[in-house]
Each structure stands twice: as C-alpha cells, then as structure tokens.
Write a structure and sequence with these properties.
Elements lengths: L1 H12 L8 H34 L18 H17 L3 E9 L2 H8 L1 H16 L7 E5 L2 E9 L3 H15 L4 E3 L2 E3 L3 E7 L8 H16 L6 E3 L3 H9 L3 H9 L3 E10 L5 E12 L3 E3 L1 H10 L3 H22 L6 E4 L2 H4 L4 H12 L6 E6 H4 L5 H13 L2 E7 L6 H6 L4 E4 L1 H4 L6 H17 L2 E4 L5 H10 L3 E2 L8 E2 H11 L11 H4 L1
Parallel strand pairs: 6-7, 9-11, 11-12, 12-13, 13-14, 14-15, 15-16
Antiparallel strand pairs: 1-3, 1-6, 2-3, 4-5, 8-9, 8-16, 8-17, 9-10
C-alpha cells in the first residue's frame, strides 16, 4: 500500500502539467516569505519537479478498449507486462499471463443469441475480477479473456496451477439472463517469464495464447502451460494437405468407436465412428486440430469414405466375434451430403461388406438441416432413407430445426446436445429443458439419445426421465476397434446373451 502511495506521489510531482504552476509558486514565496524564500523556492521547486520526472515510470500509451467489456486489449496487456517485469524482478518474483478461453462460446451465440454471449463474457469478467489483486489486470485478447499477474511467487508453475483451479471453480455456477441459464467451463493457457527464452510482454502474451489454443483442443476444462516447444507443436497441428492426404492413404487416420446404450437395460444399441489421427511423430492428434484442415484441403469426402469403410469392417468384426452390435453411426458433413453420388457409394459399400442398410446410421448436424435452400442435401438424405439407412440429427437443441425439417429429412432419432445434459441431476432448469426436448421427440414418435453423459448421477437421472439411449464418458470413452472387443466382452454383449450389466457401476 505504501509503495502504491509513493508511486502516486511521484507521478503527481512528475506530471509535466504541474510545471505551469512553478512561476505561481515562486511568486507566492516572494510575496509571503521575502527574498530568502524566493531564492530557496526558485532553486528547489524546479529541481524537485525535474527529479520526479527523471524517476517517473513511463506512461503507457493510450490503448483501445474492448467495446463489450471495457477492458484493455492485446496492446495494452503487452505494455502492462513490459512494465511489470522489472517490478517483479525487484521482488524476486515473476510476471505471468493466464489466457481464459470460455469453452463453446460460439455455441452460446448460436443457441441463445449474441446478447446472451455478451452477457456471459461480462459476467465472466466480473467473476475473474473477484479473484485478482489490485496490482493485477484483466484484458480482452480476441475471443480470450486474459489475466496479467504481478509478482507471482516462485515456484511459478505451482502458484499458477493453484490459481487456475480457483478460476475453474469460479465458473461452476450457471450464467443466467432471466429464465435463460447455461453452464460454461473454461480452458486455461499459462505463461510466465520462466516459460519463455526471452521474457518480454509480447512473448509472454503470445505464449499464453498458444497454450490456451492447445488447451481448447483437449477436453473441456484443460490447463496448458507454455514452453518454447509449443511454437513448433502449434505449427505441426496446422498440417499441410500433403500430410493429411498421406495420412488418409496410409491409415494413420482411422476410426475409433464410442458405445451407445439403451437407458432402460444398458443394452448396446450401437457405436459412433469418430476420426482419430495417430501421427508417427506426435502420437494421437486431437480431431479438433486436424478436422478443420481436412475441410480446407478439400479432403472431407475422402475422410468420409475412410471412416465409412472402417465402420462397415467393424460391424463384420463384431458379427464374426459373436457380439450383438445393432448399428454403427457415421458423421457426414454438409459438403459430403451435397454430393449427389453419396447414396450410390454408400449402397455399394453396404453391399460389398454384406451389411444391411438399417445398421448404418447417418449422422447430420442440426445446423445443416436447419439451413434453407439445401435441396441437394434433402435429396441425398431422402435417398439414404429409402435405401433403409437411419438418420440421426446430431447436436439437437443448438440450432433452429422446425417440425417440417424433421419430417422432410426423415429423422429417426435426435441426439440431444451435451449442453442440455450437463448437471441435469442438480440443475432444475436443465432438467426442465431436457424434459421438454424429450417430450418433443416422444410426440413426434422419434427416438432420443443423450450425448455427453459424464457422471453416474446424470446417467441415472436420464434413465428416470425415460430417455431412450445414452452416450458419453460415463459409459465409455471412444475406443480403437481392438479395445471395443474387450469392452463388449466385459459387458457380456454376446448375440446370444439375454442379461445385462450395470454400466453406471463399472464406468
């Protein structure tokens, strides 16, 4: 506190505007103190002002402020870190930056509108301000909120981890706007002076942002620390078209499978095929890192072909081993569904692998079917339905699908998005919203599947509500084909098996 007061006094004395009052001070000294006072003040007052200016910390330049939150932006944060580094050094501590990424922030805008998204951001700022000290700062850096921390105690990684846990706890309560409520987790990227080779404001801010971008592609709520190796790692994540094409041709990219079970008796109703990349140098790469590059490279249809083929082969493997797996789901993007030859290709793959059409579930995002004027997609889905394939509407509840679209696209099942499942066992508003979506499906005679079931309590609540099918980590994480065999063995999912085991108790 004393240091802050001295700093304010130094700034006040060193303010160049005060030099305009020096003549007034000298004249006043002569009038009230005579010639001796005149001499003393004439010498001392300009000297004190000059001395204060010489020791005065540089004034930060004016920076733009974020219009939504009023916070400083990247340039202001970089400048703040530059000035904080020498201060921390004098106290044998460090300066650090934490980038706070609100998970699925774009989904909030899509689901509730831009006003709700802005209110979530402003409320997030309020919660973060309650955690920091007076000497710290909060900024808005693109889609991220950033905390500049002054005087972080060593060991800095341990101190930041403890603070990161406090940030995550601050986001456990829902965000509300009247009757609208939603939950948001946060992913954190952290960088301190010790984490970068050349400590500077620009390097520390950039390091925290790179770490947060990598945390985002991991599971929600991740914390990632920056190190100088992340610069090359981030570049590798943005793969070239040649790498991706080679990965598809050499089976580096292949299907993993996440189980789907019936809520009433835990019987396996199918698996969802999900793309994974086993890179020879980087290991298993998150799909969020390479799927956007697949699309940019124009390889979406090739990816769909690879996953479809492996899904058909998986059904043959399960059948041969004697396991009862009624279906496998494969995701198709809007680009793939616009291909008029897709139904013929799928029919050929079904025939080639001897798979009955009803065992293939075509997953399409709600946002795709909600768009008007997609006549080609309509014809494609109609043709697939006539073949006998089933249609799942994925991420249901996040878009604006009408009753007409559900009928027009021959939807067999709606997959209720995980944002409605999260904390359904403790949040009454979540329970009410999910029940409404469930009733919607029941009235239309359409099956329902709850996505993202992550706890036994959520699983039990969904079972009591009468949700037909479930999928999520509480049942199983996605598995490579070989491990699905072990999982099915453990669950006793043989084609001749009539009993069932409790997934909740063994998940």
């Amino acid at each position: 506190m004393l240091r802050n007061q001295l700093r304010k006094l130094r700034y006040a004395l060193g303010n160049p505007k005060l030099l305009a009052f020096v003549p007034v001070g000298i004249l006043s000294a002569y009038l009230y103190g005579g010639e001796i006072a005149l001499v003393v003040v004439s010498v001392l007052l300009p000297g004190l002002a000059a001395l204060a200016i010489s020791f005065r910390e540089p004034i930060s330049p004016s920076h733009k402020h974020d219009p939504i939150t009023g916070l400083i932006t990247r340039d202001g944060l970089v400048d703040w870190v530059e000035r904080a580094i020498p201060r921390a050094a004098r106290n044998d501590s460090q300066t650090a930056v934490i980038m706070v990424a609100i998970d699925n922030l774009d989904m909030i805008e899509h689901r509730f509108g831009r006003d709700m998204q802005d209110k979530v951001v402003r409320e997030a700022v309020k919660r973060l301000k309650a955690l920091i000290r007076d000497e710290d700062v909060i900024a808005r850096v693109g889609v991220f909120l950033a905390i500049g921390l002054d005087n972080v105690r060593i060991p800095e990684t341990e101190s930041l981890t403890i603070f990161g846990d406090r940030i995550k706890r601050a986001f456990e309560d829902p965000f509300s706007d009247g009757p609208t409520r939603t939950y948001c987790s946060v992913s954190l990227g952290m960088a301190a002076e010790a984490h970068v080779k050349l400590p500077s404001g620009a390097n520390i801010v950039a390091g925290a942002q790179r770490a947060s971008e990598l945390a985002l592609v991991e599971e929600p709520g991740s914390i990632r620390f920056y190190n100088d190796g992340l610069s090359s790692e981030e570049a590798l994540v943005r793969t070239t078209a040649r790498e991706l094409n080679n990965a598809l041709e050499t089976s580096e990219i292949f299907a993993w499978f996440q189980p789907q079970v019936r809520a009433s008796d835990n019987k396996v109703v199918g698996f969802e095929a999900l793309a994974r990349w086993d890179h020879p140098e980087r290991g298993l790469v998150s799909p969020a890192s390479f799927l956007p590059d697949i699309e940019k490279a124009g390889l979406s249809q090739r990816l769909a072909e690879v996953i479809l083929k492996q899904a058909m082969m998986a059904l043959n493997v399960w059948d041969t081993a004697g396991y009862e797996v009624p279906s496998v789901s494969v995701n198709f993007s809007a680009e793939e569904l616009r291909n008029p030859r897709l139904p013929d290709y799928i029919r050929w793959e079904l025939d080639r692998h001897g798979v009955e059409p009803e065992r293939l579930v075509v997953e399409v995002l709600e946002s795709v079917v909600a768009k008007p004027g997609e006549d080609v997609i309509t014809r494609t889905l109609t043709a697939l339905s006539r073949i006998g394939c089933r249609i799942d509407l994925d991420d249901f509840g996040t878009g604006f699908t009408s009753f007409l679209n559900i009928r027009r696209f021959f939807v067999d099942r709606i997959k209720i998005d995980r944002s409605f499942v999260n904390k359904i066992d403790t949040d009454e508003s979540q329970l009410t919203m999910f029940s409404a979506l469930l009733a919607f499906g029941n009235k239309l005679g359409i099956d329902t599947l709850a996505e993202g079931v992550e706890s036994d309590a959520e699983l039990e609540t969904l079972r009591k509500l009468g949700c037909k099918d479930m999928q999520g980590y509480a049942i199983s994480r996605p598995l490579p084909l070989g491990e699905t065999m072990l999982w099915l063995e453990e669950k006793g999912a043989f084609s001749t098996h009539t009993g069932s085991s409790s997934f909740a108790s063994s998940a």
